[in-house]
Amino acid sequence: MKRILNRWSISRIVRLVIGVSIIILAIQMKMLMIGILGSMVLIQAIINSTCCDNGACDVKERK
Q1: Count of domains forming the chain
Q2: CA distance 50 to 39
Q3: In b/e form, how buried is each residue of 31-44, taking b as 16+ CB within 10 angstroms?
Q4: Which residue ranges traverse the bilayer (predicted)?
Q5: What's the chain's average pLDDT?
Q6: Contact yes or no for 7/48 (Cβ under 8 A)
Q7: Positive or negative, the Cα torsion across 16, 18, 23, 28?
Q8: Among 13, 5, 27, 61, CA closest to 37
Q9: Residue 42 pLDDT > 90, yes or no?
Q10: Residue 53, in any domain of the structure
Q11: What is the pLDDT of residues 11-23, one digit of tens each?
């Protein structure tokens, strides 16, 4: 629960707004796949995770 309520940054708020906007557009256009995409973006905003949250996008330092 702390992860959901704490640390709301600008990028997290932007993801939330974009996710909600995509879902609204998908409902208006009756497009399920777009709605699923919007849901994924919305969930990422709510739980504060990204595609690179697990360190997969980290660049290794040269020795």
Answers
A1: 1
A2: 14
A3: eeebbeebeebbeb
A4: 12-43
A5: 85
A6: yes
A7: positive
A8: 27
A9: yes
A10: no
A11: 889 999 999 999 9
Q: Whole-prediction pTM value?
A: 0.73
**What sign does the CA torsion over 33, 36, 42, 47 have?**
negative
Q: Tokens 């995409």, residue?
A: 37
Enclosing domain of residue 12: 2-47
Is residue 59 in a domain? no
Contact 45, 16 (CB under 8 A): yes
